[in-house]
Specification:
Elements lengths: L1 E10 L2 E11 L4 E5 L6 H9 L6 E6 L5 E4 L11 H6 L3 H19 L7 H17 L5 H11 L16 H15 L3 E5 L7 H12 L4 E5 L3 H7 L2 E6 L2 E5 L3 H36 L6 H13 L25 E12 L2 E12 L3 E5 L6 H11 L3 E6 L5 E4 L13 H7 L9 H7 L16 H10 L8 E5 L7 H13 L3 E5 L3 H7 L2 E6 L2 E5 L3 H10 L24 H4 L4 H43 L8 H27 L1
Parallel strand pairs: 3-7, 3-8, 5-6, 6-7, 12-16, 12-17, 14-15, 15-16
Antiparallel strand pairs: 1-2, 1-4, 8-9, 10-11, 10-13, 17-18
């Protein structure tokens, strides 16, 4: 499908790729990984035709198309969301318009008019092409993609310019997925997606009929989607035919073997060089010396990958807090008429690692601000004994002073006794040498986020409130942050859309939705198991649905979310089983109806393809009306099926 031949790219005389030879087969899903700055995004942009290579060529299968989604920078405006996304199917829309024009002409012209046969042939050909390309279900497909990416039906008629940057990238992603290019290039597609949308996109890409190449800092996403990992390193690409977790093991084995081989090679080279040095000027050894020199020139030197830079740090030892760290009682939070949190109770105890989950807009960040002392509309926030907290907001990196250097920004908030350690802290977060004097204004998103995280180390806190701390961190930095938080002796409440991060840290999950909270006293796997059992699509399990999650009443869940009794659990299980059986019957009915409708439509299209069909204008008109009605009924049936 795609072949790179001796591809090279240089920036300011420094090579990024050198004589790169690489092949992508049809249907492969490849994860592109490597250090920041290794050239992953540049390679994608070269393939997409946005950047020219220094030399070499790119070969794409005849008739193949390439689609590219950058990390940001795409803005759509000027028309409603649904209409904007429909433009991705402009070729199908053009066929639909021509079919409508031909239908009108065939209704007007007599069957013995000149060119009537050619019109019928063209009409039949277009109808078949339209059917094969999914034209009769294109509105349904657009609705499915928009829903999967988190847009509610109420958003569909909104003007695109009303959507913020993250939602603009979802619009661009929706259009790209609907175009179905033969080579789909996605650069950090999960950056702006919540867990629901990430899960939906996973399923979509797993069933994508063509080739996919993607860059992602979401380890779980890479594991679920990719069956091949391509590592950009040392000006070339190394292939591993496995998922990301297996790649980490195989890479370590490969690097370890390379180290051993290089050690042996260095020993051999040292012996040869020593021989040359000792006998270079002895006439009777001249032939042997020349032989050794030639031997040395033929040795292909082993190059080791550079040691990966990682954040290496641990949080300061905090003072001990009381057993109860935070407590919300009857708390509500509203912004004008919009009630985000409605009479909620929440208790956070010492040592908890609480993950707040829910779809975008459910109120997770609002709840974090409330816990950080942002105020409530009604109710009470009680802070426990000796609690010292730090709050890392979702936009914390934006709070940095752009006019200061990295060192000055840390110094401004540093207690006096921490000043001698500032350079060490900055070094731990990859600010070394002259990097500490870089102005905040010129730092990348990842560097700003690391600097904001570094500020958390300036004072010992026993409660960390962290809203999306992993934004803009690469895969390796996320792992080290995760390990540091695991070792942290205090309490952590956090929001994250990275499922691997949640799974590795959370000991309790709180689902936010519909203004309410639901507690799950266990790790993330337990949460997924319980939400799957209740048959509801939820963040982290099935991104197909939206809306608030079922919430227990105070009578059902007294004492801040204690588990139900066995009797109550049995009753809930029976009710769930009954609902599941009813849902199964409804699905079977819908599938039977769809089969019958599609069968009738196929018979009608077969009849309409016959030249004699349009001899009777009245019958032709009735057939056209029936065709339109059946198409609409099938689309509605599919929509109902997808909703179930």
């Amino acid at each position: 499908m795609l072949h790179l031949k001796k591809l090279s790219k240089e920036f300011a005389g420094k090579p990024l790729f050198t004589d790169l030879n690489w092949h992508l087969k049809k249907g492969e899903r490849v994860g592109l990984v490597g250090e920041n700055g290794a050239g992953k995004s540049t390679l994608m942009r070269i393939i997409a035709g946005e950047v020219e290579s220094s030399s070499g060529e790119i070969q794409i299968a005849r008739g193949g198309t390439v689609g590219y989604l950058p990390q940001d920078g795409i803005v759509a405006k000027g028309q409603p969301l649904f209409a904007e996304v429909m433009t991705a199917l402009s070729a199908l829309q053009e066929i639909e318009r021509e079919i409508a024009e031909l239908t009108a002409r065939l209704e007007r012209e007599p069957h013995d008019a000149p060119g009537h046969e050619q019109l019928l042939d063209r009409f039949g050909h277009l109808q078949e092409e339209f059917r094969l390309k999914g034209g009769y279900a294109m509105e349904s497909e657009v609705g499915n993609v928009l829903s999967g990416l988190g847009f509610s039906p109420s958003d569909w008629e909104k003007e695109c310019g009303e959507f913020s940057g993250g939602w603009q990238m979802r619009i661009a992603l929706a259009k790209l997925l609907l175009k179905k290019p033969n080579v789909l290039l996605l650069d950090e597609p999960t950056n702006h997606l919540d867990i629901e949308a990430r899960n939906w996109l996973e399923g979509y890409l797993q069933g994508y009929p063509y080739s996919v190449m993607l860059v992602s800092h979401d380890r779980f996403f890479l594991d679920q989607v990719c069956s091949r990992i391509a590592e950009v390193w040392n000006h070339e690409v190394s292939d591993y035919h496995c998922n990301y977790s297996r790649y980490l093991v195989l890479r370590e084995e490969r690097v370890s073997a390379l180290r051993d081989a290089k050690r042996r090679q260095d020993e051999e080279v040292e012996k040869i060089e020593d021989f040359i040095s000792r006998f270079r000027y002895k006439t009777d050894k001249a032939a042997l010396v020349q032989s050794r020199i030639k031997q040395l020139e033929k040795i292909e030197r082993i190059v080791l990958p550079p040691e990966r830079k990682r954040i290496r740090f641990s949080f300061p030892t905090p003072p001990k807090s009381g057993k109860t760290v935070l407590e919300l009682v009857g708390a509500s939070k509203a912004y004008g008429a919009n009630l985000v949190l409605d009479n909620i109770d929440l208790t956070v105890e010492s040592g908890d690692r609480v993950a707040l989950v829910g779809h975008n807009g459910a109120g997770k960040s609002t709840l974090m601000r409330v816990l950080a002392g942002g105020g409530v509309t009604s109710g009470v926030l009680k802070v426990g004994h000796n609690v010292v907290f730090d709050y890392f907001a979702q936009d914390q990196a934006q709070e940095l002073d752009a006019s200061r250097s990295a060192y000055e920004e840390l110094l401004a908030d540093s207690p006096f006794d921490m000043v001698p350690q500032l350079r060490d802290i900055l070094g731990a977060f990859l600010f070394s040498g002259d990097d500490i004097h870089k102005k905040v204004a010129v730092l990348s998103g990842g560097e700003r986020n690391r600097l904001a995280l570094a500020k958390l180390l300036l004072r010992p806190s026993n409660l960390l409130l962290m809203d999306e701390p992993t934004n803009h961190l690469d895969l390796f930095s996320k792992e080290v942050l995760l390990e540091a938080l695991k070792q942290f002796p205090g309490t952590v409440v956090f929001v994250s859309h990275d499922r691997h991060f949640i799974d590795g840290l959370a000991t309790r999950v709180v689902e936010v939705g519909g203004g309410k909270l639901e507690n799950f006293y266990g790790d993330y796997e337990y949460y997924l198991e319980k939400t799957a059992a209740r048959g509801a699509p939820v963040p982290g399990q099935d991104g197909g649905g939206r809306g608030p999650a079922p919430v227990r009443t105070a009578e059902e869940d007294k004492g801040g979310g204690q588990p139900l009794s066995k009797q109550q659990q049995r009753e809930e299980d029976k009710l769930r089983q009954k609902e599941e059986r009813a849902r199964g019957r409804r699905l079977a009915e819908l599938e039977a109806r769809i089969a019958a409708q599609e069968g009738e439509l196929a018979e009608l299209e077969s009849a309409m393809a016959c030249p004699d069909f349009f001899k009777d204008p009245e019958a032709a008109r009735a057939g056209g009306e029936r065709h339109a009605a059946l198409t609409a009924q099938i689309a509605a049936s599919y929509q109902a099926w997808e909703t179930l």
